[in-house]
Design brief:
single chain; 7-stranded parallel β-sheet; 167 residues; Alpha/beta knot; alpha/beta
C-alpha cells in the first residue's frame, strides 16, 4: 500500500507513540497488515524506520500496511480532530479493563513507548484509558502482545473480523 493510503471501511486503528523497539513496531505493523487495520506512528521513533530489525520483524508484510507517520503528537492530534476520532489509550495505570470497554469504529487505539509509556499531556488527551489485567506483581505485557489482544477484542465487538476476512 502507498504511505498514508486508507483502507476502505475499516474500523479501529492502531497508533504507536514514539516507539523505541523496532522489532515490536514491525510485529505490530505485521498485525495491522494481516487484520487490515490502519497504523499510525507518532514520531520521533527511537530508531530509523528503515532499520534492518524493523524490516525483518515486519517481513514482506510492510508493503501491505496502510501506514501514516505523524511528526509529533500535536500533528497526530490535528489529524485525529479532523477525522473526528476518539483516542483510547492503553496504559498500565488505567482503572478500566479493556474487556469492559465498548469499542466503536471511530476509535484509535494508542500504545505508548515500551520504555516509558506516554507523558501526562497524552494521558489527558485520551477519551478513554484502558488496561490489560495481568497477574499481580508483574508490570506489563510486551506492546505487540498487548496490541494483538486489544485489537482482537475491538474487532470482535465491532464486527471487524468479518470485514477483514471478506465474509
Amino acid at each position: 500500500m502507498e504511505p498514508g493510503e486508507k483502507l476502505a471501511g475499516r474500523p479501529i486503528q492502531i497508533a504507536l507513540y514514539e516507539p523505541d523497539i523496532p522489532q515490536n513496531t514491525g510485529t505490530i505493523l505485521r498485525l495491522c497488515a494481516c487484520l487490515r487495520l490502519e497504523a499510525h506512528i507518532i514520531e520521533p521513533a527511537g530508531f530509523p524506520v528503515t532499520d534492518r530489525a524493523f524490516r525483518r520483524a515486519g517481513m514482506d508484510y510492510l508493503d501491505q500496511v496502510a501506514l501514516t507517520r505523524h511528526g509529533s503528537f500535536q500533528a497526530f492530534e490535528d489529524w485525529r480532530g479532523s477525522e473526528r476520532l476518539k483516542l483510547v489509550l492503553l496504559t498500565t495505570t488505567a482503572e478500566t479493563s479493556y474487556l469492559d470497554h465498548n469499542f466503536r469504529d471511530d476509535q484509535v487505539l494508542l500504545f505508548g513507548r515500551e520504555s516509558a509509556g506516554v507523558p501526562e499531556p497524552v494521558h489527558a488527551a485520551a477519551d478513554a484509558r484502558l488496561r490489560i489485567p495481568i497477574a499481580k506483581g508483574l508490570r506489563s505485557l510486551n506492546v505487540a502482545m498487548a496490541a494483538a489482544l486489544v485489537a482482537g477484542e475491538a474487532l470482535r465487538q465491532t464486527g471487524g473480523f468479518l470485514t477483514a476476512h471478506g465474509v
